[in-house]
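Researcher: Last one for today. Full complex below.
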Amino acid sequence: MSEQKKKTNIILFSGDYDKAMAAYIIANGAAAYDHDVTIFHTFWGLNALRKDQQVPVKKGFLEKMFGKMMPRGADKMGLSKMNFAGIGPKMIKHVIKKHNAMPLPQLIEMAKEQDIKLVACQMTVDLLGLSKEELMDGIEYAGVAAYLADAEEGNVNLFI
Amino acid sequence: MSEQKKKTNIILFSGDYDKAMAAYIIANGAAAYDHDVTIFHTFWGLNALRKDQQVPVKKGFLEKMFGKMMPRGADKMGLSKMNFAGIGPKMIKHVIKKHNAMPLPQLIEMAKEQDIKLVACQMTVDLLGLSKEELMDGIEYAGVAAYLADAEEGNVNLFI
Amino acid sequence: MSEQKKKTNIILFSGDYDKAMAAYIIANGAAAYDHDVTIFHTFWGLNALRKDQQVPVKKGFLEKMFGKMMPRGADKMGLSKMNFAGIGPKMIKHVIKKHNAMPLPQLIEMAKEQDIKLVACQMTVDLLGLSKEELMDGIEYAGVAAYLADAEEGNVNLFI
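Model: Here's the assembly. Have a good evening.
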């Protein structure tokens, strides 16, 4: 007799602060409305899951390059528009504070508390040379098959 | 006996002319096929709803900065690719005219005539320091809860 | 008695190598899970369908400009992030090879073999001045109406 819960599945491809904010606001909203929610992080979206401190891991040359060039965690991500070498993100964080909105790292914490499933795409984790030690604890690793299994039952599917 | 209308819900996050064109073409198409259609404008997508003239509003410093740096209305938006300091948009508008396609401001007018619901995300309106006087008349203001209420019944949900 | 097949419909708007990779990986995955899959290429996404050799076609000035400035085929596309004047794509292709992942041109070949419907948006083909001789054989040409007919029955609809 039990009705199935609605499902929201977001692919977070983008490594931009503003796009990741949009993804996590929708995800947290959907969880508050009792959806089963998954955020599947792939390519640059994986940076939202990086720990902000440097983790000593042995890597090849290209993997080291990617690791150095990509932002370490949500707070260090840039904007998709008007980034201006990092001034844009500061402006946005300032107005977020002023309007009592939530900055991205807090939105991610809230997502964890609401049991939103945070997934890292195993294939792109490998391609970008990231290791599990560098990413947040408590996340899952999966591929396109797992994504599709969720998404084909989804009510709200988005690619961000 | 009446069947429910199909629903198309588009989040327009992007402030690019070409992406907004895609959003409005899909929206107008869906409305012509008798869908209930909503475009939820957030972040840079709000610029498509800005009036093209300057509206005198009292603002703080950062809000004034955002207001100055962001394009005033659909016609002033740039391209996501090959923008070349504004030459790209001119090229695109030229070929749009040549092929009797519709430029973005006309697509937005058409959307209004087809009763497509144009929504401005209240939270990002506040963050970017926009005021209702600066945005088109006849639009709605809402948040993620309203978006999800539409989207969870949606047949076509897109994030652009 | 037969159950209808699930449907995945992807709009590929982006002309970036990494985003097109994501689109084709999801599409190939969905086809492997027996979905009916369509990739609708519009705007810069059309470049993924271009032949890599130059095809002699008579064109107007703007169309020639677009033709020259846009990448000829999947292998020549840039990255959405960290493109660094073409070094980024080389790095990505290197790690793709290293990890035995599939580069984009191969993913497109696989899509054809799996009978994924590859569609070029007629309107943007016209706007960008592309001709059928310049695009791959065996693709379809259609507009927003055909897209919506597929998408309104879709289980997974994405805009990439």
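Chain C touches chain A at residues 6, 8, 18-19, 22, 25-26, 29-30, 33, 35, 80-82, 91-92, 94-96, 99, 101, 155-160 (CB under 8 Å). Residues 44 and 156 of chain C are 22 Å apart (CA to CA).
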